Structure formats: C-alpha cells, structure tokens
Amino acid sequence: MRAFSFILALLASMSANGTPLSSRTTSPPPTTQIVYQFPNETWLENIAIRQTGQLLVTVLSAPELWQVTLDPKSSQHALNANTNKPLASATLVHRIPDVTGLLGIVEMQQSDVFYVVAGNFSYDTYTSTSGSYSIWKIDMRRPSPHAVASKLTDIPEGVALNGMAALNMSQGLLVVADAGAGVVYTVNVDTGNYSKTIDDPTMKPNSSLAIGINGMKIRDEYLYYTSTAQKLFSRIPIDTTSGTPTGPAEIIATNVFGDDFSLDQAGDAYVAENPWDVVAKVTSGGEVSVVAGNLNSTLVAGATSTAFERTSGDGSVLYVTTSGGIGTPVRIEGGKVVAIYI
Ligand SMILES: *[C@@H]1O[C@H](CO)[C@@H](O)[C@H](O)[C@H]1NC(C)=O
Ligand SMILES: *[C@@H]1O[C@H](CO)[C@@H](O)[C@H](O)[C@H]1NC(C)=O
Ligand SMILES: *[C@@H]1O[C@H](CO)[C@@H](O)[C@H](O)[C@H]1NC(C)=O
Ligand SMILES: *[C@@H]1O[C@H](CO)[C@@H](O)[C@H](O)[C@H]1NC(C)=O
Ligand SMILES: *[C@@H]1O[C@H](CO)[C@@H](O)[C@H](O)[C@H]1NC(C)=O
Ligand SMILES: *[C@@H]1O[C@H](CO)[C@@H](O)[C@H](O)[C@H]1NC(C)=O
C-alpha cells in the first residue's frame, strides 16, 4: 500500500470543512465513452487537441508524449455508449531522455507546435526532484508521428513545474506553474528566457500536500487556475505582454480539489478533480456541480485534465485524461482518455 494512497483516501472522504462531498450538486449522468485505455499503472497527466482533431497526451509515469487518433468511422453521432469497440489507436510521438515524466502541454505560436514540461515527479510518493525540470518544444509540423523535439530551456529554480498556458501568441510567451513553490514563470519560447512573474498566497502548497497552483488557462486578460492543496479555483488579472499581475487574485470557488481544467465558451470551467475521481463544472459565478464520476467509480478515476473537442464545431465533446485512480480510493487501472458528451 502506498503511503500517499492512504493520505488521499483520508482526504477523499471529507471536504475541507468536514462536510460530506455529497452536499455538492450532481447533474444527471452524461453519456460517456472510453476513447482509449493505456496499460495498467500508466498515469496520463495532460491533454492538448491538435488542429487535426488528434489528441496529444502527456504521460507522468514515463517521459512520453502519445498521440491518440480517433477512428474516422466512429463519429460522435455514431457512438454507442455501451459498445466496447476501440474508438481510437495510439502512437508514441516522443520519449524525452533523462527525466521520469511529462506534465503540462500547450500549443503556441505557429499551429501544431507544442511545449511540454519534463521533470522528475514521483506519482508513488507525490515527491518532486527540485531542479530536474525543463521545457521542451515538440514541433508536429511533419507527417505524424515524426515530431521534432528539442529542449527549449531548463528551469533549475523549478520545484515541481506542472500546468502551462499560452499567454501571448504574437510575442511567443507562455506561463508555467510551479506547483511546488506556488509561483508562476513567464517563458519566452523564441529566446528561452524566463522570469518568475506571479507569487501569490492563493497559489501555495501546504505541508502535507506539496501541490499548489496546478492547472492554468488564460482568458480575457485573466489567468484562471486551480490551487490543489488549498482546494481553490481562482483567477488573477494579468498583463498579457509580461505575465505580471495587474490586480489581486479572486477566489471563484472553494472546495474544488482541482488538477487541470478547460474553459468552455461561456467561461465555465470543467475541472478534473483527481483525488475525488470526478470531473466538476465550476461556473463563472462559483457554483460547483459534479459532471461525471464518483469515489466508487472507475468512470473518470483519477481525472487529471480535460479538453474540448476542436474540429467538429459544437464543442460538446469533453475529453478527460486519467491516472487510472492511482492514489485514490478506486482500484488502479490503466490511465485512459474518456469522452464526455456535455
Ligand atoms: C531524473 O530521473 C532520471 C531517470 O531516473 C535520472 O537519470 C536523473 O538523474 C534524474 N534527475 C535528477 C535531477 O535527479
Ligand atoms: C500580446 O502582445 C502584443 C504586443 O506585442 C499586444 O498588442 C497584445 O495585446 C498582447 N496580448 C495578446 C492577448 O495577444
Ligand atoms: C528576460 O530577460 C530580461 C532581462 O534580460 C527581463 O527583463 C525579462 O523580464 C525576462 N523575461 C522574459 C519572460 O522575457
Ligand atoms: C493540505 O491540503 C490538503 C488538501 O486540501 C488538506 O486535506 C490538508 O489538511 C492540508 N494540510 C495542512 C497541514 O494544512
Ligand atoms: C461508495 O460506496 C459506499 C459503500 O457502498 C457508500 O456508502 C458511499 O455512499 C458511496 N459513495 C459515493 C460517493 O457514491
Ligand atoms: C493494476 O496494478 C495494481 C498494482 O500493481 C493492481 O493492484 C491492480 O489490481 C491492477 N489492476 C488491473 C486492472 O489489473
């Protein structure tokens, strides 16, 4: 039994103030479908959708980036939620040397050029090796899966780098969260230069869970973020030419045990609540409801990130990556990509 599993099992049974989780509202179960499942003990960490509609998933349990290609015959409308037929195939895009896993991923600048966080983070113990982190460029503008990978920069000050978001495409700026230090770096992808640009109390980890700011997205000159240990979903106004804050952080919702997330067009967040084995919706007004999963279910066990479908237009398919429930009350299975029809 892993020590951390025990800690999370305790965390999972209660919310921050001791009220049962069931006090949050639960929507009627949506239609869902397993898109692709990896072997047991594969922790999928983050997802980005290519302009081709193919899914790129980072793996934390190995330093690998995989591409998941949906079977063209299985269009959304033809899907039968009860079928077990594979919906997709997966191919290894790239394996990064000298690290144990990959974390955040973001598409930047030219279409089909992605950046990923690489480093040594143990998913068994939730401990990070400070100084092991770097950011890599993955150029997909070649016939897939022959991506061209190159290291952009090491970030030796990084304690536990995690989520990334595009800050300013024309200037080539992205932001990367340091979950271990509770700060945000701004990185120039043209030069590799980077600076610490945000250091806020709402982003800090705590002494028993060393994961603070985790998932990030930028919308309308605000940085939205989950802060895992403090169970916050927050935003802070930022200058999109520098990444520095222009005002105080605002807490949108509390009792959100968030990992990565995505925003829909209305600005509502679909948050992967990894230790609680659910995907939750957090409205811009701060109302929280469970969209899919529960503590007794493998449906989205160990949900780590979400992303809306990009090609078919209506944006109603939400892809979720999972860890397979490692460290949660659910038994371990292979990490998977699940489609939720919102
Ligand atoms: C990260 O892990 C790799 C693979 O185990 C190891 O070779 C490397 O030395 C580690 N890096 C650091 C900074 O500990
Ligand atoms: C990006 O930087 C340019 C200046 O180079 C600025 O005009 C623009 O408003 C910035 N923000 C975004 C979101 O592109
Ligand atoms: C890059 O370096 C300069 C100092 O040479 C600094 O002023 C700037 O803020 C740095 N950061 C980024 C993200 O470009
Ligand atoms: C750290 O965060 C976790 C998750 O929110 C919480 O259960 C735990 O009580 C916190 N520990 C401390 C020492 O505040
Ligand atoms: C999980 O199952 C247990 C035992 O059947 C039950 O008491 C509990 O309410 C269930 N929890 C959820 C979140 O469904
Ligand atoms: C996955 O591996 C874990 C740990 O080795 C084991 O407990 C679990 O039963 C396995 N699950 C499946 C579905 O094989």
From TrEMBL:
Output the superkingdom of the source species.
Eukaryota
Q: Which InterPro entries match?
A: 6-blade_b-propeller_TolB-like, Hetero-Diels-Alderase-like
Annotated signal peptide? 1-18
For this UniProt record, the keywords arranged alphabetically read as follows: Signal
Entry annotated with the keyword Signal: yes
What is the protein name given in its UniProt record? SMP-30/Gluconolactonase/LRE-like region domain-containing protein
